[in-house]
Amino acid sequence: MFELRPYHRKNSRLSYNPFKEMEDFERRFFEEPFTGFFESGDIAEFKTDISDQGDSYLLEADLPGFDKKDIHLEISGDILTINAERHSEHEDSDKKGKYVRLERSYGQYSRQFDISSVDAGKISAKYENGVLRLKMPKKHVELPESKRIDIE
User: Fold this and answer.
1) For residue 74, what are the β-bridge partners?
2) How many domains does the chain have?
3) 3-state class (DSSP) for residue 22
4) Of 64, 84, 65, 89, which Cα lies nearest the Cα of 73?
5) What is the distance between the alpha carbons of residues 51 and 58, in angstroms, rounded to a whole number?
6) Which of 124, 43, 113, 120 is nearest to 85 (CA)?
7) What is the pLDDT of residues 58-70, one digit of tens each?
8) If DSSP codes are grouped into helix, strand and coil, which group holds residue 75?
9) pLDDT tens per residue, range 87-121
């Protein structure tokens, strides 16, 4: 049975710093005490739910605060990429010095999914109330015909 799973590229870093994880933990512990120990205060990736609807899959991605025009879907081969970008107001030079505290995250967020069992040409998307919904029809797999061979 096929499962729709996130596609992750392997990071090919040549240099390894064995103390980086400990430094990150220490930084989060002392600088960001109100966030979880194993997550940063920024949005690392948006959360998704994928359900099997019988003849299709339904992918629901939480993207609150994004404008529809800033969400882009791209299919390359059997990989679906969802990109979303949130622009910040504090980038404006007039407002830069007026903020006392900035907690909302801004930037570009991306997720990739393997859609090899999906009919990519029939995917439909809808964005409403901060939730992106993709209806992804399954590919129809034709089973080979069985054929009887008579023995002479």
Assistant:
1) 81
2) 1
3) helix
4) 84
5) 5
6) 43
7) 999 999 888 899 9
8) strand
9) 766 555 455 667 777 677 677 889 999 999 999 99
The whole-angstrom separation of Cα 134 and Cα 119 is: 12
CATH number of the domain where residue 69 is located: 2.60.40.790
Q: Which domain holds residue 89?
A: 45-137
Query: Residue 31: enclosing H or E segment and its boundaries?
Result: helix 20-31
**What is the pTM assigned to this prediction?**
0.60
Contact between 135 and 80 (Cβ < 8 Å)? no
Residue 137 · residue 118 · CB < 8 Å: yes
CA distances from 101 to 35, 50, 98, 146 (A): 16, 36, 9, 69
